[in-house]
Design goal:
sialyltransferase cstii, chain A; binds cytidine-5'-monophosphate-5-N-acetylneuraminic acid; 12 helices; 33% helix; globular; alpha/beta
Length: 277
């Protein structure tokens, strides 16, 4: 009985981080002209009809997976940064509902965030960690990469777009949840990867999330991304982000069997029962 009393689902820890997008009414943005750029819409339309979601990691081992058709059956499909579908449909599908993009992708000229077609007609959730204990005012001047300029250009160009900024405080709360899960093993003092932020952003909206090729399957091939030939295992196991801890925690949340996780590359994560949290 002591085991049951001590057991606390890791999905609860992720939900409690409350990863969210900034809204117009959030101080200090309710008093700033910049806040008027935030969309009035919710993050997702028809939330009540959302039953299944797929998160497509950008991992190299998605190459040759033939998971595209399966991915596209989900109500919501989340992708990251500039990860393409074109030319990779058989493995990663073609549907995209939302892209989680880091502030480098919003900022660096080579990605051309304000114009590139890949960032059009999808929901955007852009993030930048700012300083660990910084206020939101501080963040506006000390973001790691100044994502605000291009965000403003994008929002003015496409006023009907669903393009949001993720609350940086909620990113650090997620980091704290990860540290809680890791217990007495200190994790890196860097923000979680876009993949883990995406999971925490999606789970409150989605009863069932299939996270594709996040915990590496037996297709593991040493490639960084499915869309590039670059070999780099650090993309999978982590160097800057606390990626290994994230993946252990995601595996702890998984309800699918080993065949699904390690042969097909699919983790299945369900919203926690509120009575358990
Ligand atoms: O590589 P990246 O991530 O865009 O991948 C998106 C998410 O997929 C998961 N992933 C990726 C590769 C891999 N082999 N295994 C994986 O599990 C991770 O969860 C990852 O978050 C990022 O998190 O935003 C990141 O972005 C890149 C880079 O900025 C963008 O791709 C734009 O080029 C970062 N790389 C560098 O800065 C060099 C990466 O560290 C994190």
């Amino acid at each position: 009985d002591s085991f049951e009393e001590q057991y606390y689902p890791s999905t609860c820890l992720v939900m409690e981080a409350g990863v969210r997008v900034l809204r117009r009414k959030d101080p200090p943005f309710n008093k700033l002209a910049f806040g008027k750029l935030f969309p009035r819409q919710r993050l997702f339309r028809n939330i009540k009809n959302i039953k299944t979601c797929a998160i497509v990691s950008s991992a190299g081992s998605l190459a040759g997976s033939k998971l595209g058709r399966f991915i596209d059956t989900h109500d919501i499909v989340m992708r990251f940064n500039h990860a393409p579908t074109q030319g990779h449909e058989v493995d990663v599908g073609s549907k995209t509902t939302i892209r989680v993009v880091n502030s480098q992708v919003v900022t660096k000229p080579e990605f051309d965030f304000p114009h590139a077609p890949i960032f059009r007609n999808v929901t955007i959730a852009a993030w930048d960690p700012g300083k660990y204990n910084g206020t939101l005012e501080d963040w506006l001047t000390t973001a790691d990469y100044d994502l605000f300029t291009n965000y403003e250009i994008y929002r003015r160009r496409y006023p009907k777009s669903r393009a949001f900024l993720i609350d940086p405080h909620s990113v650090w709360r997620l980091w704290q949840s990860l540290q809680m899960f890791a217990g007495n093993r200190p994790i890196k003092r860097n923000p979680p990867s876009s993949g883990f932020i995406g999971l925490a952003l999606l789970l409150p909206h989605c009863p069932q999330v299939d996270f594709i090729e996040y915990v590496p399957s037996t297709r593991l091939n040493g490639r960084c991304h499915y869309y590039s030939k670059e070999m780099n295992s650090a993309c999978t196991f982590g160097s800057w982000h606390p990626l290994a801890a994230e993946k252990l925690m995601a595996l702890d949340m998984n309800m699918a069997d080993d065949m699904s996780v390690f042969q097909f590359g699919i983790l299945r994560i369900r919203q926690p029962d509120k009575l358990l949290c």
